Amino acid sequence: MNVLLISQCNKNALKQTRRVLDQFAERRGDRTWQTPITQAGLETLRKLLRKTARKNTAVACHWIRGHDHSELMWVVGDAAQFNLNGAVPTNTTARDILRRRDENDWHNGEDILLLTAMAALLHDLGKACDAFQQRLIGKLEGRNLYRHEWISLRLFQAFVGSDDDATWLARLADGGYQEQDWLEGLERDGIDAPISAVFSQLPPLAAALGWLVLSHHRLPLKPPENDGDHERRWGRGKAPLQAEQLGGLFASIHAEWNEIPETQDPKRISPYWQFSKGLPVSTPRWRERAVKLASRLQARLQNGSHWLDSRYVMHLARLSLMLADHHYSSLEDLQHRVRGEPNYPLTANTVRKTGKPNQPLDEHILGVEKHAAAVARALPSVDSHLPCLARHKGFRKRSSHPRFRWQDKAFDLAHSLRERSQRQGFFGINMASTGCGKTLANGRIMYALADPQQGARFSIALGLRTLTLQTGQALRERLHLGEDELAVRVGGSANKTLFEHYEQEAEASGSASQQALIEEDAHVVFDGNFDSHPVLRRLNNEPGTRALIAAPILVCTVDHLIPATESTRGGRQIVPMLRLMSSDLVLDEIDDFDINDLPALTRLVNWAGLLGSRVLLSSATLPPALVEGLYEAYRSGREAFQRHRGEPGLAVDICCAWFDEHDRQHENCASSETFKTAHHAFAKRRLERLSTSPVRRRGEILALPPLGKRPEEIRPAVAELLREHALALHQQHHSVDPHTSKRVSFGLMRMANIDPLVDVARALFQQGAPEGMRIHLCVYHSRHPLVMRSEIERRLDRTLQRAEPERVFQQPDIRRLLDSSEENDHLFIVLGSPVTEVGRDHDYDWAIVEPSSMRSIIQLAGRVRRHREQACESPNILLLDTNLKHFEQSGKPAFHKPGFETDINWRLSSHFLSELLTEDEYKVIDARPRVLARETLHAKQSLVDLEHERLHQLMIEQPAEPLTKKEIRLGKQPKPPPLGAYSWYAVPQVHLTGVLIQRDPFRQQLEPEITLALIPDEGGETWTLHRVDDGARRGEKLYVPVEESLLVRVDQAKEQGERIQPWGASDYLTALADLAEDLDISLDRAARTFGTVTASARGQRWGYHPVLGFWRSK
Fold first, then answer.
1. Strand pairing category for 58-66 and 1109-1113
2. What is the pTM of this model?
């Protein structure tokens, strides 16, 4: 390609870009270069320019495509130097003709700045205590009894005393106070009694500043109960919470919300309340800054703002303070620091590597105040300094396949809502069916909503690592985007390494070689100016941070964004908050999350609304209660955003839109009632269309005979039953191999839990297959070592892509298995756990399901005839009438872990599907039971209603319980609504603590887990089981050998019956050796990275075989 490069750089940036550009292209003028270049060469040039970019860099690249046509490809640096087509202005003026400053919509920007700066002056006063200073020189070890931020808060409380905000601000602005004013009324926890709850005493402004000081490392958490057996530790143990407590929770915060002292010994406590070297408040520079800030705050005080009630102001002020504190603490070079008093005796921190004193306390406080003010001042311009994607042909290109034409209509609707969504917010729902191209449609919708002058920025968040990797790879290939334009983040580096390794293998073998020409999806990237922005450059040294914020499109597991609301300690909320502030959000397959994760996802959607994002939910099976609850969370967040950033006087009226493969609609929804009505109308029309679609999945309930009472009897009986009905389904639903005329079917047997699954697998291997038939059995669940699980998934992915039905018979391993045996009927069976339900693009002929919930039945049904649209006339999905827990744990919940049934409040009256489902709900299996709930729900008599009712109770705010006449006479207050996901935004000030995060954490571990690793010996001929423990140093791993008697090794070959064989799995050591050779690493390192598995810590003895995976042994 022939390119023209234009430089609009100034000062040293011009010299630097000339040095780079002269290596690649010939000059055509002082600031112009031209050259023919390959795509790879151009990418290298762009990377070099980005690497050396500075504040004054501005380089545009134009692709000369013919005699009369050129196209802007990208801009590195300051995109404001060029217009959308890459032209430069004829003339410029310093006059503010467009009055852009008048368009600053941060109504409370000054409040954020002043609160941040004043809190910075106060945040580390507690480090002046003798205990902290002794700790820095190594004279005090162990945990703090009281943390420095709590001591800082007590010092500030002592200064405020009983004054109102105007009075204490006047004293601070006057500058006539003495150091003794901060110490005289000091309440010393652990020494003085009684002790007041701080926030019940402080006036509003002082309380807001006090909260910023207290929370600049940790959010306050409710102290755990004293159970007697374990030492009480902050953030650990049970801290029961009642709805009645939420209202007065913030005012009741005391010292144990910040740290739990391990002793009440006055001798050990007293150094925390002694300040023998004075306080920084007496230094001239501190006083000077305090006077200026107090004077400015006095002017803001007249507005009568209650800052604590403003989530937007408080959390952005906290973000600014934490980022400044974190950044300034890391500075060692005096050149980048402020000046404090000479020879100041107090120290703030030490150099991490050497332990020597680093920053004097007075300098640290002044430096953090300066940086915090700079961060807060620069927050409004963050999004304009980040890279954006514009004029991308792949997103705008019309669909050529009739099946995907609905995407064009969705794109057009989103395009028409662009300006409205910018002013009013956007809450969208994409309910298109599986296989209709939802992933690309989601990207096209978000791209259409973006301002073309600024370009698009959005994040796609998913629940599963494998699905995230697949989605990112699919979008990169389809849209021809590089790593800088589309970042993929999944957390586990081992998963990503394996995924990329197999992708490279596919490319090398030619199976991924169908690449379109680059011009198909030419696009413009506005690179922004990351390094010159006061907020962004302070994040530059954090590993992985740049890609998470900078990439115009981010595909990630939701774990990367959830810390925006879930981070109770450290500054892990900073980066995801900045991402939400500067981009829109797609939540893909949100209903796949466990019900216990929905409160955290509700908090994330609420925060997305609060920070100005537009939100799109995407799933074919979204239940109404989930959608309505998330809308209300978004509306509450958007209401706060518009109060602080929107047009004055503009009422909250969210722009909502619905999409599927048949229909699209939009409506402004100012209230939950309006939204509920519109969503119900769309869902009803969707149901009508689904009912007329060709039926691909027909279900039937499989009645179970008496199976016994003990697991040893039940599980082999279930295996026999599964085999019998698998053979019958094979007769009805098979394909014929065109080469040998053998009958072949691919079936899925889904079981709820892994340990019973392994026992059933062993029984199936023992039973074998009848004459004339051969069973190929793949045991697939999450307790395989990573290398084995990836190997199984890769084989299944390759085999079960069946859009072209004959293609499966060309697969080398399938071909080999068919040709090497004489049987005429071949059943390829995957016996799998719930991991088979989501995230895998597999197409089976039939399935047998041990039920857990209606959601899982529908999700699993989506894997049957997934790629083939022909109708099915006979049942191809068999549902066991109940599950094994009903027989093995009689009297306990059966549809539980996984499932929606619980022990007390949500017990079903029966455990038999024949009594819990109507024929309409299982004869034809599709999304209809999930998409719309019945008018009246019977949660104890219906599996479908149980799910809807539980979601409704959790997501939709319940009315307060009415008082009885007697309670009214006694003057009792009405009971608040019960705790739910909605409590986060419905209860004022609860966001100032971490109690709801503590109660309903994201991905809560219901039981302790351990990591096991299979480490080979030096010769690589055998392996030993190791437990992986955390070492003393951060990130260190210790591999502890597990006693051989605790491991059961199975000789699976001896247990194997006739005409049955393993499929999908290989030998562990062989797979590990091949991977180590391919990645050019040692066998030991490969085992420590890819030979691990996470399992429940409850099991004392473990069984393992490469075919069966890990299981708990008795």
1. unpaired
2. 0.90
